[in-house]
Amino acid sequence: MHGRVTGPRETERRIGEIRARARTRNADLLAHNYQLPEVQEAGDFVGDSLGLSLEAQKSGAGVIVFCGVHFMAESAKILNPEKTVLLPSLSAGCALADSITPESLLKWRERYPGHTVVTYINSSAEVKALSDICCTSANAVSVVRSLPGDRILFTPDRNLGRWVARQVPEKEIVVYDGVCPTHDVLRDASVDRVKLGHPDAIVIAHPECREDVLALADEVCSTSGMLSAVERHPEARTFIIATEWALIHQLKKRFPGRDFIPADGCIGCRLHCPYMKMITLDAIERSLRENVFDITVDPEDAVPARRALERMMAVPRDR
Ligand code: SF4
After folding, report:
1. Partner of 264 for a Cys bridge, out of 86, 236, 270, 309, CB 3.0 to 4.6 A?
2. Residue 317: its pLDDT value, please?
């Protein structure tokens, strides 16, 4: 049943039940920072794509319930083929991952012979399988710097690719034309307006935001990087956050004495990823009860995709 209204006590009770059921199933719940706050509370581990990939590998559980989107669950399965990886809702896709297909990558690659293909983790297993190395927003700059070649094809996120290109000017980086609609919708004008009301606030932006927004930011980093970014400003009380609104749940928990304001100037309603919000407590309960939805990856894609992911995981975070 979806959409029922419950109080905090009832939510807490349900989270307790879910966690108890997960223990009896020898399951770990991994939750992305963009998940609904109550789903983050149910998680054994909350983090960004890189953190969740590493955690999936470290986990001693036989079952991983991946509270995130499809490409993340697929990556967890590729890295842990012996484990059962469950995604509680098959509607949890990703517009950015869907912007590139194996066919479009092959066609694009043909135009740039001799270039190294760097693919953001927000992509399908088939696309990863055709790539030389993956990256996340937490290590994209370090990944590009680590490569011996200086001609790069960066796919699929245009904003992240352009930001990396500015950090690594010594390499020629050709960028694919995909975007995350959740971040790409934000404009500098909205951030400026929020800043007017909080002139001393520190602006922290995700590199999937457009260049005009990044130009206003004091810090540009991945979602987990944002938690450390707050620590770098012990004197600041207020932070304007340019990424999906649910990350603010983690920031508030970690820094109860500070204020965090969504950069869109409202309640984060524009900085909203509908795919991430397909995972609800109801969906997780069902997933654990009925063993759904079991994520599988064609071995022909899984082997080369794993190689690209493992190369990425060998590169440290940007900072
Ligand atoms: S926030 Fe953007 S990149 Fe992340 S899952 Fe949603 S649509 Fe995809």
Report:
1. 270
2. 80
